[in-house]
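Lab meeting notes turned into a lecture example. A postdoc, R.K., suggested we walk through two folding results consecutively so the class can see how the record format repeats. The first protein's sequence and structure tokens come next.
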Amino acid sequence: MTKSLEERIDDLEMHVAHQNETIETLNDVVSNQAQVIDRLIGAIGQMKDHLLDIQELVDQTPGNQKPPHY
């Protein structure tokens, strides 16, 4: 059962077409993931800034002072 040259070429063309489709799908997934990662990095940066602001407020608060009603 030897395939003819034309059948072999057809098989190869179908295989390459399938691989191209898979590569395009994977590229879309990677691109979407890159966008999500960029948004997450931005959100983490904002949260870090907020935490630093909160830490500054905590550091400025006096530690062991009696409340004014004592």
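The second example is placed directly after the first for contrast:
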Amino acid sequence: MKCPYCGSDDSRVVDSRDTTDGVRRRRECISCQVRFTTYERLQPVNLYVIKKDLRQEEFNKEKLLTGIRKACEKRPLVNGAVEKLADDVETELFQMGKSAIPTSLIGDLVMLHLKKLDNIAYIRFASVYRDFTDITDLKQEVDTLLDHLVPPDGQLVLPINS
């Protein structure tokens, strides 16, 4: 590690501590005796997304968050629920160990998590993701959801009058 003050390559580790995303080290330069802090973080492998037209682009968590936020807009969700959902999806994608993942798989993962989180957000996301062409497709998705209705955490189930 190069000293940021004198440029010397000789330093020793004085203290080392784990942090949430890596390791924090206090170092002391052998040449000038100045102490400085370094952080070591795991550099994740680049993950690429295979688009519908077979183009590939680098995975962008912000795009994922934007889509989830739109689906969850004005829903009574716990603070941080959207970010946690995006983190969980991102973690699952990296755990797959693949360098390129189709957008369809990402969309399916998001829908799976949204279904557990909020039924309305799930339907909103599905309407865009599945590109419903008419109201019949939407009704079919709602009917499927109602047939397997398990209320998301903290949500009440209202009786349905047929």
